[in-house]
Write a structure and sequence with these properties.
The protein has about 750 residues and is an alpha+beta fold. It has 11 helices and 43 strands.
């Protein structure tokens, strides 16, 4: 159902995503490409992941539980710790009007590595956030998984409400968290807690700083080679600021602050002095000049590059509109982000008190600059001049937004019954270069595997959807994803459990060289016998792969005859019957939606083939060939061929037999005479004894209205006769039963007790 709707979807805005075949949950299990942990009866919300490649474990936070899974197989050798909220806290939560089963539990929201032997873990604690330390051991063989009895206050680290999103990161013993800090869920802030410094946060109750945000991610990105310049970047969505948008709207944001920010001396005491935010734009230009915006930021993934200061940022967005449902993926560069943070500040001015770029004098050092030896002689933010701190307090937003690379999304999906929720990206080495393979989670429990392929240049990308896989037994939103390059596995979390699947399944592309090449999967190459995992270090003469062009003509032309001889080309051969003057449809669907289909006709005892062109009788469609009026001369062999990148492959061979109308009339009358002359008891009583053409005639489209009427009348006459005979037998049986009941009633009348007893 999901795949059909995707195929029928209107691929709007000129984005073309080539679809490959989908795989259902049952098919994934049957092919041993999916391992599942179906969850505990008394737990849910498997949303918080921490991947530990060194120890080979995946730690998962859920409702009232923490799990440690083996990366090789999550269904085996897993450990669990129960950490429920205390009965007192649950009662208090219930008395406050919260749902006892859905809200008054301890939902794990923070899982961060604290040191070599412990993790820092926090949960909602039934609307009373709590934190503790989880011992996991130093080495994999330690086999330690124990929660310390010491419990800390979790305010400013975990939200009170489990429905609220939070994002956190523990760096150098300090926890940076974007979360809500009160029971009512109104005081949202970015906190830094733990460590040797005093806790610090964003300005309270100031919508210019944060306006009902939902935090998505926290990341440390170096600014220069000097660690003093390191910055923390936060990704979140929030309500647009007053005057920023007509009516209520959601905007995606990126926020920055300095890692060494200690707050101000007289103003902004124990508050961030270097916090700035900018809008993230992900939109599609419209033909009428109005852009279609995707503003609901759902997830971000940072793809590292050779330069640690310049990771590529992948972000998943959805639309805010209830009418227009869509999703998009945009890419951002740190160069563009830094340029915006060095640009004009947003300032409210003018008769309409609207947002304009600040034109006045900006104090020195520029607000948002980290105190370091690189940019001046200030040792800490407490040494900053008062005018810098005052300006930072009233100008936290930048005027210019951050636009994506190429000013447009790399993927847009509209008019489908799902939306994107999560993304992880893997950089894969192929024969002709490196490619980014995206794994995108949806809100119905499916994974889209998409590869970015440059067309003319690396700035003009084409997106090819390689696979679409269902990874949970029922539709459920994917809320967490982790990718292990070491294990070559993908791990997924949802409300109902955890799933694990391999990054590549080369065997699904078949054994033919052409099919493997056309798949354009960077993980796979044809190795001489089948489509298998590509290893850059293994030099093999027979290996064939072409991701950039997907051109089997140059890669496999010398092997096409070899594939055909070995039966590796996927060719369907079937026979179809039709009736003269009727219509018929020959279905042919190539795997790749980009392939063009051609039909050829060949007489049964003739080698000559001719191409079928569309005319009044023959209509070529994307799904196959429609023959509107069959003639006797149309009998023969029909070949469906797919052409892609100049490579032609025969997908289907159909032998069409056309039965003439006179023969059909003979069959009908012969059957009627046989039925009339045969005694009633000699008539066949089971479907298996029907004449061979009975089922066939009930399926074909009859050429004339008279033939159809005759045939239907015969069928109905037989059915009425059969029903009458059956009704007569039933009536006789009922009559016998009533007589028998009457006898029994008279016989036992005296023995039966009164009804009152």
């Amino acid at each position: 159902h999901v795949w059909l709707s995707a195929v029928k979807a209107n691929v709007a805005f000129g984005y073309h995503i080539i679809l490959f075949l989908p795989f259902s949950f049952a098919e994934m299990l049957a092919s041993n490409n999916l391992v599942t942990f179906d969850g505990l009866a008394n737990s849910s919300a498997y949303h918080t992941f921490l991947l530990d490649e060194e120890k080979g474990r995946l730690v998962v936070g859920a409702k009232d539980h923490i799990f440690s899974f083996n990366l090789l197989n999550i269904s085996k050798d897993y450990a669990q710790i129960s950490w429920p909220a205390s009965p007192t806290r649950r009662d208090e939560c219930k008395w406050a009007g919260k749902d006892l089963s859905r809200e008054c539990s301890n939902f794990i929201k923070v899982l961060q590595p604290f040191n070599q032997t412990h993790l820092y873990v926090c949960g909602t604690g039934a609307f009373h956030p709590v934190c503790s330390y989880l011992e996991v051991g130093k080495k994999p063989e330690d086999s330690v998984f124990r929660l310390e009895p010491h419990v800390e206050n979790g305010r400013g680290k975990s939200p009170y409400d489990p429905k609220l999103l939070t994002a956190s990161m523990l760096i150098d013993g300090e926890l940076y968290a974007g979360t809500s800090a009160d029971f009512m869920g109104r005081d949202f802030a970015i906190f830094r807690t733990l460590g040797k410094h005093h806790p610090i946060r964003t300005e309270q109750h100031d919508s210019r700083w944060l306006n009902d945000p939902r935090f998505v991610g926290v990341h440390l990105i170096p600014e220069s080679d000097n660690p003093e310049d390191d910055k923390i970047y936060l990704f979140f969505r929030e309500n647009a600021m007053d005057g920023e948008h007509v009516g209520k709207a959601t905007h995606a944001r990126i926020g920055q602050l300095c890692k060494n920010d200690l707050g101000g001396h007289r103003s902004l005491v124990n508050k961030w002095t270097t916090f700035l935010k900018a809008r993230l734009i992900c939109s599609v230009p419209g033909s009428n000049g109005i852009d279609t915006h995707f503003d609901e930021l759902q997830d971000v993934f940072l793809m590292s590059t050779k330069d640690p200061k310049s990771p590529v940022i992948y972000a998943v967005f959805t639309t805010s509109s209830n009418i227009f449902k869509g999703s998009a993926v945009c890419m951002y560069s740190m160069t563009d982000i830094r340029r915006v943070f060095l640009g004009p500040y947003a300032h409210r001015d003018g008769p309409n008190y609207q947002w304009v770029p600040f034109q006045g004098r900006v104090p020195y050092p520029r607000p948002g600059t980290c105190p370091s030896k690189t940019f001046g002689g200030f040792d800490t933010t407490k040494d900053l001049p008062d005018e810098v701190v005052t300006f930072a307090r009233s100008h936290p937003a930048m005027f210019n937004p951050v636009y994506p690379i190429n000013n447009r999304p790399i993927i847009v999906k509209t008019d489908v019954d799902y939306q994107f929720t999560q993304i992880v990206v893997d950089k894969v080495e192929a024969e002709d270069g490196q490619y980014d393979v995206m794994f995108i989670g949806t809100d119905i429990g499916t994974i889209l595997k998409v590869v970015s392929i440059p067309r003319g240049s690396w700035h003009d990308l084409e997106e090819v959807l390689l696979e679409e896989m269902t990874v949970f037994r029922e539709p459920t939103a994917i809320k967490a994803m982790e990718l292990s390059t070491k294990q070559q596995q993908l791990y997924l979390g949802s409300d109902i459990g955890v799933s694990q699947m391999p990054l590549h399944r080369c065997e699904v592309y078949g054994k033919a060289c052409a099919e493997c090449c056309l798949a354009r999967d960077p993980y796979c190459a044809w190795d001489g016998t089948e489509c298998s995992r590509y290893f850059p270090m293994a030099k093999r003469r027979t290996r064939r792969q072409d991701i950039r062009n997907g051109d089997p003509l140059t890669q496999c032309s010398d092997l096409q005859h070899h594939d055909e001889l070995n039966g590796q080309m996927t060719l369907l051969d079937k026979t179809v019957y039709g009736v003269e003057n009727s219509s018929t449809f020959l279905e042919c669907n190539p795997k790749s939606q980009r392939a063009l289909t051609y039909w050829q006709y060949q007489r049964s005892f003739d080698d000559h083939k001719q191409e079928i062109r569309s005319d009044e009788r023959f209509i070529r469609t994307e799904q196959g060939l429609l023959i509107r009026t069959l003639h006797k001369k149309d009998s023969g062999i029909y070949l469906c061929q797919a052409v892609e990148h100049g490579f032609m492959q025969t997908l289907l061979k159909v032998t069409l037999e056309v039965i003439d109308t006179n023969r059909l009339e003979e069959l009908l009358h012969h059957d009627e005479e046989a039925a009339a002359s045969a005694p009633a008891q000699d008539l066949p009583s089971t479907p298996s004894h029907k004449l061979w053409y009975r089922d066939f005639l009930s399926l074909v489209n009859h050429p004339t209205l008279n033939s159809v009427d005759e045939f239907c009348e015969q069928v109905w006459k037989r059915e009425r006769k059969h029903r009458k005979q059956k009704a007569h037998l039933v009536q006789q049986w009922k009559h016998l039963q009533e007589r028998q009941k009457g006898r029994n009633r008279r016989t036992h009348e005296l023995e039966r007790a009164p009804r009152s007893v």
